[in-house]
TrEMBL record:
Protein name in UniProt: 7-carboxy-7-deazaguanine synthase
UniProt cross-references to HAMAP family, sorted A to Z: QueE
Metabolic or biological pathway, per its Swiss-Prot or TrEMBL entry: Purine metabolism; 7-cyano-7-deazaguanine biosynthesis
Binding site for S-adenosyl-L-methionine: 46-48, 83, 124-126
Annotated function: Catalyzes the complex heterocyclic radical-mediated conversion of 6-carboxy-5,6,7,8-tetrahydropterin (CPH4) to 7-carboxy-7-deazaguanine (CDG), a step common to the biosynthetic pathways of all 7-deazapurine-containing compounds.
PROSITE patterns: RADICAL_SAM
Length: 207
C-alpha cells in the first residue's frame, strides 16, 4: 500500500459516508452515520465491498472534515467501517467524535492493532487473516460470517477468546444465504448462546 496516511491518523482515506440504519448485529435497526475507510489486505473472497480494498482509490480526508459531516445528522452514533479501519490510527477520529457527543462503533476483522476510543466493537474474524489475540477480549460483539458448515467449529474457537459478556452472532454470507441460513437456524436452536444476524439493509434496499 503506497498511500501515505499520516501515522497520527489526522488524514484518513475516505471511501464513502452515509446516514442509514445499522443493518447488522447488536445495533440493528438504529440510525447511524457510516464512515467507510479505504484499504484492506485481508482478502475475503466473498467480501461485499471489494472496491474498498485499494486505499489509493480513496481521498485522504481530514478528521475535522469527517467529524463536521457526521455532526450534521440527528443520529448521534457513527459506525467506522471499511475496508479494514484498524489499519489506521483511529485515536484522533474517535476522540473528536466523542467530544461532540457522538457514540463510536466499529466494524473490524481484528487483524490490526486496536486504536481509538470505542463505545462498541464488532469483531468479525476472518480465516484469511486471523485476528490479533490481544484484541479479541475487547469485542462487545463477535459476528462470524458463515460460508459453510465448517464455520460453526471455527466460530466456537473465537467465542472462547472473547469476554464473557460479548454478544455472539452468526451471519450468513450473502451469496450463500439460501444454503447456510437453515444450518444457522438449527445451530442457534441447539446452541442458544448464539443469535442470528442478517444483513437487513440488503432486504430493505438501503445503503
Ligand atoms: C465489509 S466489512 C468491513 C469491516 C471489516 N473489514 C470487517 O470485515 O469486519 C463489514 C461487515 O460486513 C461483513 N461482510 C462482508 N461481506 C459479507 C458478505 N458477503 N456476507 C455477509 N457479511 C459480509 C463483514 O464480516 C463485516 O462484519
Ligand atoms: N446499513 C448498513 N449496515 C451495515 N452494517 C455494517 C456494514 C458495513 O459494511 O460495515 C453496513 C452497511 O454497509 N450498511
Ligand atoms: S476484512 Fe472486511 S473489508 Fe476486508 S475483505 Fe474481509 S470483509 Fe472485506
Ligand atoms: Mg456492508
Amino acid at each position: 500500500m503506497a498511500v501515505q496516511v499520516p501515522e497520527d491518523g489526522s488524514l484518513l482515506p475516505l471511501m464513502e459516508e452515509f446516514y442509514t440504519i445499522q443493518g447488522e448485529g447488536f445495533h440493528t435497526g438504529k440510525a447511524a452515520y457510516f464512515i467507510r475507510l479505504g484499504g484492506c489486505d485481508v482478502g475475503c473472497h466473498w467480501c461485499d465491498v471489494k472496491e474498498s480494498w485499494d486505499a489509493e482509490m480513496h481521498p485522504l480526508t481530514a478528521v475535522e472534515q469527517i467529524v463536521a459531516n457526521a455532526e450534521k445528522h440527528p443520529g448521534k452514533a457513527v459506525v467506522i467501517t471499511g475496508g479494514e479501519p484498524l489499519i489506521y490510527n483511529l485515536d484522533n477520529l474517535t476522540a473528536a467524535l466523542q467530544q461532540k457527543g457522538i457514540k463510536t462503533f466499529i466494524e473490524t476483522s481484528g487483524a490490526y492493532p486496536l486504536s481509538g476510543h470505542w463505545d462498541w466493537i464488532c469483531l468479525s474474524p476472518k480465516k484469511f487473516k486471523a485476528p490479533r489475540p490481544d484484541m479479541t477480549p475487547f469485542a462487545n460483539e463477535l459476528k462470524v460470517i458463515v460460508f459453510n458448515k465448517s464455520d460453526f467449529d471455527w466460530a466456537e474457537k473465537y467465542a472462547e477468546t472473547v469476554s464473557a459478556n460479548c454478544k455472539l452472532y452468526l451471519q450468513p454470507e450473502w451469496s450463500r444465504s439460501k444454503e447456510v441460513t437453515p444450518l444457522i437456524i438449527d445451530y442457534v436452536m441447539q446452541h442458544p448462546k448464539w443469535e442470528i444476524s442478517l444483513q437487513t439493509h440488503k432486504f430493505l434496499n438501503i445503503p
